[in-house]
Amino acid sequence: MNSKADILKTLGDQTRLRVVHLIAASRKSLCVCEIVDALKLPQYQVSKCLVMLRRAGLVEVDRNGTWGYYHPNLAERANVALFKFVMEYCAGEPFDLDVIALEKRLKLREKDKCVVGFVPEKELLKLMRKKGVDV
What we know:
By secondary structure, the protein is mainly α. The chain is about 55% helix and about 10% strand.
C-alpha cells in the first residue's frame, strides 16, 4: 500500500503528470504507443512512467494480446478526487496540446482499438493524412 505522500511524490514529475493527465482526459483506455505519439516522448520514458504510476496504484492495465491499455484506477475513492484535481490543475500548456495530439491519434483506431503500434513520426503523419486527420 502506498502512502498518500508517495502517491503525490509520484505525480511530482512533469512527465508522469502529463501521462496521468492524458489518461484522465482521454476517458478511454490508452495503448502505450498512443501515449508516446501524443506526448512525443521516447517509448522507454513513457513505459517507465507507466510502471511507476501502476506501482502507485493510479493506473491499471488491461491486456489484449500483446497490447496493453492503460486507464485510471478509479476503484480507489481517493483516486477519483485526485484525477479530478489533476484535470482542473493541469489546464494550459503543455497539457491541452497533449490532449489535442491524443485526439488526433485516436482517430486511427479501428473498432476502438489501436491498430498502428509504434511507427516513426513520418509514417504516422502519412497514416493520419490517409485517414483524413488534420496534422
